[in-house]
Amino acid sequence: MNSPTLPIQIENLTYAYGSAEAVRDLSLTIQPGRCYGLFGRNGAGKTTTMRCLLNLLRPQRGQVRVFGLDPAKREVEVKQSLSYVPDQVVFYPWMSIRETLDYLASFRPNWNREIERELLGRFGLDPAQHTGNLSKGQRTQVALIGAVCPETDLLVLDEPTSGLDPIVRREFIEAVIGAYQQGVPGRRTILVSTHLISEFEGLIDEFTIMDRGQAVLTLDADHARERYQKIRAGFAEPVPEIDLRAALRVRRDGRDLELIVNGGGAGLLERLRQLNPKRLSTESLTLEEIFVATLKA
Amino acid sequence: MLLKINFKSGLPIYLQIVDQIKAVAASGALQPGESLPSIRPLAEELRVNRNTVAKAYSELESLGVIETLPGRGCFLKENHSALRKEVRRKLLTEEIDQAIVQAHHLQVSRDEFLKLVHERLNALDDKRRGHEGPKESQKKEEVR
């Protein structure tokens, strides 16, 4: 614990709203330069976890560290070291976009005007417009500009693309890749919570799936896609008897068999092959499919 | 050069980029000395992490497929294997062995297999000839 090089360390974090436990005994570590996904259904505890990192909530048990610092004790330093796009973006409605960005910049030691100009142009935002007149998508875009321009080493995104149209979601992710990641390679770290997993598939290096406040699965994304596979087999006769206990999920319908495996796919595939199926194919699960398979299992 | 990431292939994303650029180079769609897209636009287009593209490029560089000229970008190298011949043969042997195992399971006979290899080599030659035309023009090649 307390390593200044690690962007985020969470150890046995527990937080309850009254008697309702939102996060229970959560531990995770995020290495620098990674894009880390926090996946979970609504109410899984993602937002509560992020709020503890920002000292918007105090952990009731366990501890959180941002670059080795306790957010409750070193709030200013922690907040200077990161940028945050909350799930609900609210600005002062009487301010223009220009005034809003200047206001946000006034809290920051560094503000990249060039990236600000680039992103305003890319999103087609008029700086003179009042934020009270913006759509939800435009408000999120302004919030993203406000989060990217300070060029912090950590970007925390809480459900940033939910409720946005597909084009805006696309532009949002491209801006994160292009503008935010353009700093020193391997240094910029992203923590993103989302249930729209497919949007972030290519960006995610590592992820934790949360369910009812607990971490149920933490894996490297490439490794996960290698382990979780869908095997489909079609037989000339009704599916023969075969030991399928190694499979995570089994669907059969007459002559067709569909399995989801978590590791050990090669062995099962070999056994199926010996039964001389007419068709046999495998494909990896996407992160979204892994999410669904994990929570349904 | 149009690359495509398939999240269902089970191959790490950076390796898919490596394989596709190697295929584009082998087909002649990308000629020695021509530049590769820079990391940022490629990452944005594929919607993958920039570190992933950077990892693919450094892998291609260590394989001797591309070279990085500081301040100018990445370029396809002329004679692109830095590895000794026996190492290259060994690497290829592993790939061929896998294809042979696959052929066995798909009940493709020895003769059929060899015929297929000839066909694929000829197809690649045809593709290369197709790219020998105008060198400076914009070339686009869809890979799979």
Summarize this structure briefly.
The complex is a heterodimer of chains A (297) and B (144). With 297 residues, chain A is of the alpha/beta class. Chain A contains ten helices and 13 strands.
Helix content of chain A: 25-40%
The largest sheet of chain B has its strands arranged as 1-2
In CATH terms, the superfamily of the largest domain in chain B is: Winged helix-like DNA-binding domain superfamily/Winged helix DNA-binding domain
Q: Which spans of chain A have pLDDT < 50 for at least 5 consecutive residues?
A: none
- Determine the strand fraction of chain A and express it as a percent band: 25-35%
User: What is the mean pLDDT of chain A?
Assistant: 92
Please state the second-level CATH architecture of the largest domain in chain B: Orthogonal Bundle
CATH topology value of the largest domain in chain B: Arc Repressor Mutant, subunit A
Number of helices of chain B: 5
Helix-strand topology string of chain A = EEEHEHEHHHEHEHEEHEEEHEH
CATH class of the largest domain in chain A equals Alpha Beta
The count of domains of chain B is 2
In words, what does this structure look like?
The complex is a heterodimer of chains A (about 300) and B (about 140). Chain A is of the alpha/beta class and about 300 residues long. Chain A has helices at about 45-55, 75-80, 95-105, 115-125, 135-150, 165-180, 195-200, 220-225, 265-275, 285-295; strands spanning about 10-15, 20-30, 35-40, 60-65, 80-85, 155-160, 190-195, 205-210, 215-220, 230-235, 245-255, 255-260, 280-285. Chain A folds into two domains: about 10-210, 3-Layer(aba) Sandwich (Rossmann fold), CATH 3.40.50.300; about 225-295, Alpha-Beta Plaits (2-Layer Sandwich). Chain B has about 140 residues and is mainly α. Chain B has helices at about 15-25, 40-45, 50-60, 85-105, 110-130, and strands at about 65-70, 75. The longest helix of chain B has 21 residues, at about 85-105. The radius of gyration of chain B is 17 Å and the shape is globular. Residues about 135-144 of chain B have low confidence and may be disordered. The interface of A and B includes residues 182, 204, 225 and 282 of A.
